[in-house]
Structure formats: C-alpha cells, structure tokens
Amino acid sequence: MPPRRHRSSRGFPFPSFRIRWPWTVHQINTQGGSVMGKYVIFDGMDGSGKGTQIDVLKERFVDTAVFTREPGGTPFAEEIRKIVRDNPLAERSTALGNLLLFFAAREELQHNLVAPMLRVGKHVFSDRGDSSTFAFQLCGEQHKELCSLFVDLRQLVFSGPGRRSPDLYVVFDLPAGIARERVMRDTSRATTHFDMRDLAYYERVREGFRAFASRIEAPVAFIDATLPREEVHNRVLEVLATKEIFPM
Ligand code: TYD
Q1: What is the pLDDT of residue 17?
Q2: For a substitution probing ligand 1, which of 42, 43, 46 has the most ligand atoms within 8 Å of its CB?
Q3: Structural domain boundaries of the chain?
Q4: Residue 22, preceding peptide bond in cis (omega within 30° of 0)
Q5: Beta-carbon count within 10 A of 145 CB
Q6: Which residue's CA lies nearest to atom 5 of ligand 1?
Q7: 39-241: which CATH topology?
Q8: How far apart are CA 12 and CA 210, in angstroms?
Q9: Which of 150, 184, 185, 225 could form a disulfide with 172 if both were Cys (CB 3.0 to 4.6 A apart)?
Q10: Could you report the per-residue pLDDT of 146-178, keeping only the tens digit for each?
C-alpha cells in the first residue's frame, strides 16, 4: 500500500514527524497467513459518549470482537490503571511519568491480549489507545518535547512478532465546553484527577486528536458526538464497514 501524504496542521506547536508503520508485521502474522481480526481504537474526550457507544457495540459484536480498554485490559495492566488513574498520588505525576505508565500498560496489553486475539481472527475493539496519550499528555499537558519518545515507544509497542498497529481509529468529536458540561451533569461517573483541568486543557486535547490524525498513516474517522445517539451509532457502523467489520 503506498504511504499516504503527510497532511500539514498549521499552527500546531509540535515538530513535524511522520509515524512509519511496521508494514511487514502489519500484514503478515507469525504463521505467515493473512490476519483476519482488525484492531480498532475508539477515542475522544471524556463526555463524548464513547462509553455508551462501546456498550451498544458490545451487544452487536458479541461473538466476533474482544473488547478492552486503556489503560487496563489485562490483570497487570489493570493494576497500572489503578496507579495512574485512581491513586490520588498520581496527581503529582509528571506528563513524562504518565506517558511511561500508559505505555507500560499498553505494552502489557499488546503482548497478552491484542496480539493473541488478532492472531486467532478476533477483532479487538479498545476503549482508548495511543491516540489518548498523544492528545492528553503531549497536547493537553503541552509537552512537545515528548513527541520523539512517543514515536519511538509507539513503534516498539506495535512491532515485534505478531504485533499489529491499529487498523482504524474512531474519534468521538465534540466541542470541549459541551463535553465538560456532560461530565459535570453525569453524577454516576466517578471523578478522577483527569477531570480536574480547565477548559483550555480540554480544547487542546480536542485539537490533539486532530493533530494525531494528521500525523499517522492509519485512518482516523471523526464522528460528530453532538448528534443523537442512534445517528452516532449508525456512523460508527459505516466507518467499521470501510474495514469490512460488520455486526452479526
Ligand atoms: P476513564 O475513566 O477510563 O475515562 P473514560 O471513561 O472517559 O475513557 O479514565 C481514563 C483517563 O485516562 C481519561 O481521562 C483519559 C486518560 N488517559 C490519558 O491521559 N492518556 C492515555 O494514554 C490514556 C489511555 C488515558
């Protein structure tokens, strides 16, 4: 497949880079056969309705997809989740510290769940992924100096025997102000230290997803998350169909 042209994102304060995919690993599994499962990451701001959409997909793809999340998804990665997300001490962690913890959990998930499931032909649908690290740690927290580390770690985590880089990213997109209002209204949701930032932070996160999309070679589909729930769901199905992923 010829590489896509790098789209520019003027005004974005990060050095230009282009993530190269490990194509040989991507297209061939360790047995030398064709990989059947697809790896899809669903992402977006807190309050984007991502969780609700994933719940609907769980019913429709119950036999064909394995659902996971980041950080987490395996017993050990769930332990890292408890540290990075739920432990009050994590509030004092730096962007670099967080980035390393998220990648540690990601490496664990790739090794023990994503790669094995894709190998046996299951789709893997993940609630968040490396797109979140780019949007939150690099863009939200404004640490452009972590960009080259991000690229290197990403390359390592998605390459190696049986590893695959994501086939598709689906980003639920909406203005930061609306996302924040939704989060504040949702009393059922446990608040974490990630929820305590100002609006400008979430605006940078939103822009971060766009910057991520402009820098990678995998398709990133943005879906308007302000649309009615069913309409969003239909659009998700349309996007999945572009990768030949269909509900039962
Ligand atoms: P969670 O409660 O799972 O959020 P949501 O239900 O909205 O997905 O908490 C995960 C938090 O971790 C979320 O605020 C985003 C953040 N996060 C990062 O900052 N970087 C990352 O790489 C990942 C995967 C998540």
Answers
A1: 54
A2: 46
A3: 39-241
A4: no
A5: 12
A6: 46
A7: Rossmann fold (3.40.50)
A8: 10
A9: 225
A10: 999 999 999 999 998 889 999 999 999 999 999
